Amino acid sequence: MNINLIMLLLVFAAFGLVIWAQFRVKGSFKRWSKVQASSGMTGKDVARRILDDNGLTDVPVEPVQGKLTDHYDPVSRTVRLSEPVYYSDSIAAVSVAAHECGHAVQHKEAYGALVLRHRMFPVANFASGIAPFLLIGGLLLQARGLFGLGILLYAAAVAFQVVTLPVEFNASSRAKTIMVQKGFIRNVEERGVSKVLNAAALTYVASTLYALLELLRFVLLFLSSEE
């Protein structure tokens, strides 16, 4: 079987994994949103406690519209939680809130992977925006140099995704540890927390795998154009 065809099939398989991972994270969040945390604390309460206990009293916690739109903004140093997380006292809500606060603590401690990710962001943001046009243009115009430049920029965007993985895994690890130590959840509730956070982590893994396979496919196309 032609190597390019094999790569194309692998890319399609990885894309399927991305879709499945997205459904899984939504399903896990929906399931554990129906289970109340024993502490009775809401996502907002958990976030505020974690931030305050880590000396981040100046970092606000704000509600934002949408579902699974939760994030930590390193520029304004703000934890933003989707309304279903901010106001809810479910296992899913407190898990997500603790995870986002994990990023705030990483920022305070200058966690290596997070610092690198922040430095890479401007280049990765530019690269991800222009790379598709260069790749498509290079293929249509049969311009090998243009296509090669597109590959380099796409590689920068992929590198950003790779660096994101340890950042996300570390934030989840911090979240689970803090939640048990502070009594936000009981030991028997750890299973639910793991289900929610592991499902979220899988989306990053799947997306990165897809991007890496796409990059490899482009490289093989570039090399085959020499022949």
Q: Please indicate the count of domains.
A: 1
Number of helices: 7
Global outline: elongated
Q: What is the C-alpha radius of gyration, as a whole number of Å?
A: 20 Å
Keywords: Membrane, Transmembrane, Transmembrane helix
Organism: Melghirimyces thermohalophilus
Transmembrane segments: 6-23, 123-141, 147-171, 192-213
Pfam families: Zn_peptidase_2
Question: Can you give a write-up of this model?
Answer:
The chain is mainly alpha-helical and 227 residues long. It has one domain. Helices cover 74% and strands 5% of the residues. It has 7 helices and 3 strands; from the N terminus they run ααβββααααα. Strands 1-3-2 form a 3-stranded mixed beta sheet. It is elongated, with a radius of gyration of 20 Å. Keywords: Membrane, Transmembrane, Transmembrane helix. This is Zn-dependent protease.
List keywords for this structure.
mainly alpha, 3-stranded mixed beta sheet, elongated, 227 residues, 7 helices, membrane
Topology of helices and strands:
Blueprint lengths: L2 H30 L10 H11 L7 E4 L6 E3 L4 E5 H4 L4 H19 L2 H30 L2 H38 L8 H35 L3
Parallel strand pairs: 1-3
Antiparallel strand pairs: 2-3
Organism: Melghirimyces thermohalophilus
Protein name: Zn-dependent protease
Keywords: Membrane, Transmembrane, Transmembrane helix
